Amino acid sequence: MTPVPGNRPSDSGEDARVARTRVDVARAALEVLTGEGSEAITHARVAEIAGYSKTTLYTHWPARVDLIIIAIEALGQMPHHERTGDLRADVVGELKVFRKGILDMRLDRVLTGMAQWASEEQMRQVRDKVNTDGQHQMYAMLGELISGAALDAGVSMLTGVVACPSLMFGTVPDDDIIEAAVDIVLTSARSPR
Amino acid sequence: MTPVPGNRPSDSGEDARVARTRVDVARAALEVLTGEGSEAITHARVAEIAGYSKTTLYTHWPARVDLIIIAIEALGQMPHHERTGDLRADVVGELKVFRKGILDMRLDRVLTGMAQWASEEQMRQVRDKVNTDGQHQMYAMLGELISGAALDAGVSMLTGVVACPSLMFGTVPDDDIIEAAVDIVLTSARSPR
Predict the structure, then answer these.
(1) Looking at this predicted complex, what is its ipTM?
(2) Which entry of A12, A110, A179, B20 is 20 to 30 Å from B87 by CA?
């Protein structure tokens, strides 16, 4: 039988195998990233967790940054607070969900991995996706009161009040710091210009 | 001649040699950290730049984190804005000096290095020193208007508006974002409770 290019049973078998390998390796890479940190992401370690050979990993993902990228792609959607209509409660709630994500999903390690490889073009795309997905609800909420540079600054400051201590000091803010930060932004947004 | 412990010429000669090695290696490690990023800090790379053998480096600084710590210790004092007495201008000025430090001294790479090894006890001490040194002027300025959780939140938010984009996205904020962030904090601080 003459093989038909792109349509051979062995081809689709191989495609399925490659797809399965990708899912397994991405899951293992994410497990290493969130469980042990970006420093621990090596071909040897991810291969060990995924149950594949190092050679297989090097073939598909030649650089360490490739493994970090597929790990982050495997993260899925960012968690968000379910809005109630009370703006202050909703902004505070959103920041607490983000804080919980740092503690439970170790999003700080994901952020650190992204930061470390910030100059890689491919990482930029993944990062922008995670970022957009992570911040869109905060933009929508604060966008009810402010716009322009104030809106960008407000979102950056509130994201930062949770992300920065976790990145810089390995800690997360207490409730009273989160609430004080939200009050600073909302008080300013509601004050007459 | 009977050697006198701790007082032999060879001893002080060795002490001086060790001290010189430490200075040379710390400077080389800082050069690699800010020039190439924390990922590039390896015994081989730092030894190459410093002009010492890898064996010497492993003897004094067995782990990579040890090299990152002496690099950060070699940073010196954080730069600060010279205060004029105009609070808004001074807070904006302080954030612009911080932004300049990120661009010129690549403080973002220093922050990333600290973040990556946040769980190491020794790193915690170095980080707390850099942090205290970096934030004390902002604490003093905002402390004229606010206190308690609002002060902690305000400092964290304003530091974050510069540090976070650099850590998370490899960018720094424009002047209008910095000014909007400062106005948010000052407007809120000056509004009646």
Answers:
(1) 0.78
(2) A179
Considering Cα of A164, then A168, then A170, then A173, what sign does the dihedral take? negative
Residues B99 and B68 placed together within one structural domain of the fold: no
Query: In whole angstroms, what is the distance from residue B171 CA to residue A40 CA?
Result: 26
DSSP A105: S
CB contact under 8 Å between A115 and B112, yes or no, is yes
| Cα separations in angstroms, B125 against A57, A87, A164, B171 | 38, 39, 18, 27
Would you say residue A130 has pLDDT above 90? no
Residue B53 predicted with pLDDT over 80: yes
Q: Which structure tokens are listed for A174?
A: 């207490």
Nearest residue of A to residue B173, measured between CA atoms? A153
Closest residue by Cα to residue A29 from A66, A76, A79: A66
Half-sphere exposure of B53 (CA within 13 A, CB side): 3
Q: Do the chains contact at B153 and A161, CB–CB below 8 Å? A: yes
> What residues of chain A lie within 8 A of the CB of B163, using their CB?
160, 164, 167-168
* Per-residue pLDDT at B11: 57
Are A164 and A92 part of one and the same domain?
A: yes
Compute the distance between CA of residue B80 and CA of residue B15 in angstroms, rounded to an integer. 35
- Out of B108, B118, B164, closest to residue A164 by CB: B164
Cβ contacts of B173 on chain A, cutoff 8 Å:
153, 156
What is residue A11's predicted lDDT score, i.e. its pLDDT?
Answer: 58
Residue B106 and residue B140 share a domain: yes
A170 in the same domain as A119:
yes
User: What DSSP string describes A170-183?
Assistant: S----HHHHHHHHH
* Nearest-by-CA chain A residue for B41: A39
Domain hosting A18: range is 9-73
- pLDDT of B5 reads 46
Residue A35 belongs to a domain with what CATH number?
A: 1.10.10.60
Q: With 50 as the cut, is the pLDDT of residue B16 above it?
A: yes
**Residue A80: inside a domain:** no
Query: Do A94 and A186 share a domain, yes or no?
Result: yes
Distance from CA of A46 to the nearest CA of B (A): 18
Residue with token string 């495609």: A15
Instruction: Dig out the tokens for B43 from the structure.
Output: 């015994």
Mean pLDDT of A27-37: 93
For residue B3, the 8-state DSSP code is P
